[in-house]
Amino acid sequence: MAPAGGVLRRVVKTGAAAADRLRAPAPGVVVLLYHRVGTGGSLEIDLPVDLFDEQMASIAGRVVPLGTALEQLSGPSRPSGEPALVVTFDDGTADFVDTALPVLERHRIPATLYLATRFVEEQRELPDDGRPVSWSALSDACTTGLVDIGSHTHEHRLMDRIRDDEICHELDRSIELIQDRLGRPAPDFAYPKAVAGSHAADREVRARFRSAALAGTRANRHGATDPFRLARSPVQRSDGMRYFRRKVDGGMALEDALRSALNRRRYANATS
Length: 272
Ligand SMILES: [Zn+2]
Fold this sequence. Notes:
The chain is of the alpha/beta class. The chain has ten helices and nine strands. The longest helix has 20 residues.
């Protein structure tokens, strides 16, 4: 990444933290979003394993499976104590099993992995040299009892710009492959690139899943959360521990507002 990108990122993060000081983030369940761990690149979505380990150590004991969090969120009031956290991963790259899972196991942290199934099924490389995980490695990962598998569509297509029949195919093929190859259902869904779907996509997602995740970088409030518009807080390399802690507390929403404005331009002509 060019130095200018680094400076801009710092300005955004400092600004987002300052905005939180003016208006404290609302409490609730924070769903953390990771992509890659320790693949050795300099991508913002790829965290060094030491940093990931330190982050997991700092939240161990507070993380619950997504299903537990959804139950808590549907209740009228929040349970006593610190709000729960959820750890999620998107896409299905090999580092999830090779690098992230040993850390999760060490700290006994459950996680949901949202799979874009075509890349796993055909062993196709994901963008930015993303080596896909294999079904057999995933099958082993599931035996730890810590991993839940969700759908992230079949081909990672943006759900606001495809035809209705393509929407159904993206969802059904992905559900079918997870059931076939891993012998388990995929009850939860995450929109590719956290781009919300069309009305038709929203309808088809609600018909097939119990939850759907977007971005948002804020906490989900108890008794006031649509489980099909779950907010997630993407964790980036440059968050370090400092901004990670703010995200764990439901902060840094301004970063998401800027990210989604930027992405509207960046993905204007994209399809996946
Ligand atoms: Zn993705």
